[in-house]
Design brief:
This protein is about 30% helix and about 25% strand. By secondary structure, it is an alpha/beta fold. It has an eight-stranded mixed beta sheet with strand order 12-11-8-6-7-14-15-23, sandwiched between helices. Strand 6, helix 6 and strand 7 form a beta-alpha-beta unit. Helix 13 (about 345-350) packs across helix 15 (about 380-390). The longest helix has 17 residues, at about 100-115. The structure holds adenosine-5'-monophosphate-propyl ester. Adenosine-5'-monophosphate-propyl ester binds near residues 296 and 499.
């Protein structure tokens, strides 16, 4: 029998050793005993980090939705699979049993088929956190279509570039979305995006806000009547282990967003196995992850991981501050949540409001609480531990990436002793390395370096959609024979890992991954802007906020700088979305550059952090004189 469910520390070490000594045998056992296969694999693993090529469970046949839905029908048909908690507490929560979810997924799958969607087609899903989002994702997987979920906070041009990159022919969206007091007109954002996307032939629209929308004849269809007519059974498309399951875009440090491609079998096995252990999920638990399904955390730990385990998973449409800052705690009490998983940004924002919002809520059902998406500072960790976990429910600080598909570093609750701000130990099968500046691996403990991974794991992204070269260059060219994460980390005296943050030009703002390049490109589109550079600076709620250094063109025209700042943020909102807006903008006449013309962001970062004690040797710069000027005018 495999150790699907790890229960004590010794067992963790023993299973970890086994998973590293013979990964193929280890993962084969896990896959064999806990999943539904139409045909078993011929080979567990083929890999080469040079090409790079990674295949898990080659030759196996399956459908992931049979694992998420069909196989629970007999044992858990009436168990709640999904709880939908609407934005407004006055609207009733909805409970979907496994059987009901199965039927809804089959109906949606049949609608997609009737609209001509076939295996391998890309479907763009641009929906708020409503049940139809989960249903659409699973319906795509049911028929072998590749879902590309675009976070519903992204702008029209961000959607358009993602639709075009993966050539989606169909979009699923809604008339609008509710977020706190706001009603957002999603459909018109899609309409605007589609002006640039002539290949999209169908838009399926969920009715959510009931606001009037424009319907383009022949292209837009309301989903409701189609679903009503649809047959509640749909035979699953039988997929190869390595057939694509989804594309999910993530920011890169340069260029356009990267469409990370995840495939079927390895992703399923790893997300299900990590979910079971990292949340210690038990049959009667109610699990809630507050992430949006538009991010990898939502894909892996709202949908696939929980449903593969027959769990009850909660989706929340709203925001933590509406109607007031007790909303999260109210929901925990209302649905008797056992596992609660959120982001440090949310914890910091809620901590700032004070404990009075928690006081009247019963949080005693919580067994495990988690964080993800960015480093958690010590103060927020303790606040979470004291007030939410009440020093009983351990915190799992889980580190992973869109690219890794599943959690890679995390405590296993009740197994791994936690340590504030540390993600602690690698998960089973994960072989980490810390690298120095020369590209040598740092051995032993108490070292600080760049985080790399030495061996494939089942849920790793297999390529960047349409750009395998970029996949190789971004992840496999920094260190020989290793995957490079882009993060820095330290390993303490007992081998625990603490993630120190990005070491490339990606900035994590409120847990959202933002590349500097696309933001700079957006700013540079303003007619008055000659050049710009973005860096992050510490922010006590968002973790990091964005600081923009902007050089204006000498147009002779005098304009109010306040207006310019608003216009710059407006362009960013249009091109990317409000999450990428700048907190501070400094107009400057120069940017520090190396002799080869590269902007020295390290210096700009220090200045934005207001730490100019150690700027290093600036005499080698092309234009050292601009540095003092920037320091003198820091915002
Ligand atoms: O820098 C790390 C940070 O988020 C990055 C990945 O972002 P994304 O692909 O959007 O996925 C976020 C959700 C998994 C990482 O490279 N990050 C993620 N989790 C943690 C973290 N930083 C510190 N601690 C974490 N637990």
């Amino acid at each position: 029998m495999s150790n699907f469910h790890i229960k004590h520390l010794e067992e963790y070490f023993q299973v970890y050793r086994k998973s590293v000594r013979n990964p193929e045998a280890f993962w084969e056992e896990i896959a064999e005993e806990h999943f539904l296969w139409r045909k078993k694999w011929d080979k567990v693993l083929t890999w080469d980090f040079n090409t790079p090529e990674i295949k898990w469970f080659e030759g196996a046949k399956l459908n992931i939705t049979e694992n998420c839905l069909d196989r629970h029908m007999l044992s858990r048909g009436n168990k709640t699979a999904l709880i939908f908690e609407p934005n407004s507490p006055d609207e009733k929560a909805q409970h979907f049993s496994y059987k009901q979810l199965y039927e809804k997924v089959c109906k949606m799958a049949n609608v997609l088929k009737s609209q001509g969607v076939k295996k391998g087609d890309r479907v763009c899903v641009y929906l708020p956190m409503i049940p139809e989002l989960t249903i659409s994702v699973l319906a795509c997987a049911r028929i072998g279509a590749i879902h590309s979920v675009v976070f519903a906070g992204f702008s029209a041009s961000a959607i358009a570039s993602r639709i075009k990159d993966s050539d989606c022919k169909i979009v699923i969206t809604s008339d609008g979305s509710f977020r706190g007091k706001k009603v957002i007109d999603l459909k018109s954002i899609v309409d605007q995006a589609l002006e640039e996307c002539p290949n999209v032939s169908k838009v399926l629209v969920v009715k959510r806000t009931h606001q009037p929308i424009e319907i383009t004849k022949g292209r837009d269809l309301w989903l409701e009547p189609l679903l009503k007519e649809a047959y509640p059974e749909c035979a699953p498309e039988i997929m190869d282990a390595e057939d694509p399951l989804f594309i999910l875009y993530t920011s890169g440090s340069t260029g356009s967003p990267k469409g990370m491609l995840h495939t079927t079998a390895g992703y399923m096995v790893y997300t299900a196995y990590t979910f079971k252990n990292i949340f210690q999920y038990k049959e009667t638990d109610v699990y809630w992850c507050t992430a949006d399904i538009g991010w990898i955390t939502g894909h892996s730990y709202i949908i696939y991981g929980p449903l593969c385990n027959g769990a009850t998973t909660v989706m929340f449409e709203g925001v933590p501050s509406y109607p007031d800052f007790s909303r999260f705690w109210q929901i925990i009490e209302k649905h008797k949540i056992s596992q609660f998983y959120t982001a440090p940004t949310a914890i910091r924002a809620l901590a700032k409001e004070g404990v009075n919002f928690l006081e009247n809520c019963n949080l005693s059902t919580l067994k495990v609480i988690g964080t993800v998406g960015e480093p958690i500072n010590e103060e927020a960790w303790h606040w979470y531990d004291d007030n939410v976990g009440q020093n009983k429910a351990p915190i799992v600080d889980t580190w992973f990436q869109t690219e890794t598909g599943g959690i890679m570093i995390s405590p296993i609750p009740f197994v791994t002793p936690t340590k504030p701000t540390y993600a602690t130990l690698p998960f089973i099968g994960v072989q980490l390395a810390l690298m120095d500046h020369q590209g040598e691996e740092l051995k032993g403990n108490q070292v600080n370096g760049r985080l790399a991974i030495k061996f494939p794991w089942p849920s790793m992204a297999r390529t960047i959609w349409g750009n395998h070269k970029r996949y190789k260059e971004t992840y496999f060219s920094t260190y020989k024979n290793m995957y490079f994460t882009g993060d820095g980390a330290l390993r303490d005296e007992v081998g625990y890992y603490r993630i120190t943050g990005r070491v490339d030009d990606v900035i994590i703002v409120s847990g959202h991954n933002l590349g500097t390049a696309p933001i700079e490109d957006a700013i540079n589109e303003h007619p008055a802007v000659a050049e710009s550079a973005i860096v992050g600076f510490p922010h006590n709620i968002k973790g990091n906020a964005l600081y923009g250094y902007v050089i204006l063109k000498d147009t002779g025209e005098s304009r109010r700088q306040d207006n310019l700042k608003n216009e710059i943020n407006q362009i960013i909102t249009e091109q990317i979305g409000p999450i990428a807006k700048l907190d501070k903008i400094q107009f400057t006449s120069g940017l520090p550059k190396t002799r080869s013309g590269k902007i020295m962001r390290r210096i700009l970062r220090k200045i934005a952090e207001k730490d100019t004690s150690n700027l290093g040797d600036i005499s080698t710069l092309l234009n050292p004189e601009c540095v003092q000027d920037i320091i003198d005018n820091v915002v």
